Amino acid sequence: MFNFRRRSQENDVSRARAVYRREVERLIKAYKQGRLSERGNLEILDDAFRPMMDGIHEVVEAISAPMRECIEVLEDVASGDLSQRVKGDYEGDHARMKRALNQALESLDQGMMQVNQASYQVASASEEIASGSQSLAQGSSHQAATLEEISASLQEVYSMTKQNAANAQEASGLGEDARGATEKGVDSMRKLSSAIERIKNSADQTSKIVKTIDEIAFQTNLLALNAAVEAARAGEAGRGFAVVAEEVRNLAMRSAEAAKSTSALIDESVSNADDGVSTNEEVLGALKAIEQKVRKVTEVMSEIAAASEQQEEGIEEVNGAVERINQVTQQTAASSQESAATAQQLNSQAEELLALVRQFKLSRVQLNGPQRPSQGLYGAAAASRRSPRTAGYHNGEDGDGDGSSKSDELMTYFDSDSESILKDF
Amino acid sequence: MTAGAGQHIKRSGLGGKYLTFFLAGGEYGLEILKVREIIGPTPITPVPRTPDYVRGVVNLRGKLIPVVDLGKKLALDHQSDSQETCIIVTESRQEHIGAMVDRVSEVLDIDADDIDEAPDFGSKVRTDYVLGIAKSGSRVKILLDVDRVLSGDKPDVQL
Question: Between the CA of residue A169 and those of A162, A165, A295, A310, what are the distances in Å?
Fold first, then answer.
């Protein structure tokens, strides 16, 4: 019995060993092929081999557990989740692997975060630039319009000044003519004066002659009267002689009368000449005064003409300056429009970058979702349009982003951190 | 001469030729036959101790003739001498006396009918040297009696 039993026992042992060896060989083959989840079938194993199989299982488990976790984490990373870390407690090479992987992930995570932040900054800054450039462009076009008005006004002033200068020149010429005429008038008055003086002298001469005639008439009258007396004394004989004497006397009376009226006329003409002389004197004085005044007027007109010409030159210079300002303004408008377009391009590129970064899930997402400042070209509508997208990265902490209230805070964060971020880049 | 004396007596026969002249604005007449000649303004030499109406003497072609200011003699307003002042040389009783008048006028034939007697101004007024008053249109000419006006001057001059 015993022997049998022994013999049968010996058979059993060899059979169990064979099962075990087969099982181990299968496992080795599977493990070689990377199927680390394969396990030996403990049911078919003899009790004596079970602890050994358990040992093999433990070894394989110790090797594959960290590998599995690493695979899971890397699979998550592959799908864009950079927030996963290897968490298992490992020792030795496994601990090294865990550390290396976690460090690599951390670096990637950090880098992505910084890219994200920088992209937001670029987007925000480019928007501001776009807005600023747009304002500048608008301002420049306003300026250009105003300059156009100024230029038109200047043109008007210029033509008026030109007219002024021409008028002053003409007035100056007229004044010159008037002065010449006045001088001629003064000359003529002098001639008139001497003519009147000559008339007076002639009148005096004539007066003397008339006086002589008057005296002769008087003497003739006396002679005629004496003849009449003699005739009367001669009585009848002197009758014819008396008639002749009477005739002579009549002639004498007539010539005396004529002399008297001539004398009166001469006196009148002399007094008229005297009046003429004094009037002439007055006219001469008036003409001289006119001449002086006209000379003054001519001087003033010349000054006005000169001043107008200077004004004209000044306006020309101003016009040139305005033209140059206008050119600069046009350039500014064009440049600012270009700058606005470029900034918008930059902005859209930053948006693209952000979209790329958003494909990754990052660990410290609360720093990744800065609100855009609700100012500039897009205003509050733009900010609220973006809010829901950015909200996802806040892990609900910031809700759906009351952009305007947070923007300042976030901007401050960016401003204070931007240097270090740039350094890291 | 005799004919003149005869006319003188007959007052109604005053008509005839008269030499008229002006004195102080009034017109007077002298019988033409009493007039020798008329002379123009001539230098008169004053004679001392004579009445104020005696102007002096003139030398008329070598003959001295006393000159009486007739205006003064007849107590008329004084007229200053002018260029027309003349001396009428009269002949009265063979004597020649010059009468200074303002202006001689003409030799006029006056009709006797136009001559009136001098009006009576009262007993104290002397009108004896007026022959009569001739009317000529609206004007009046006093005809003087040469003998009475000037004869009394001869003795003065002779003094």
Answer: 10, 6, 14, 14
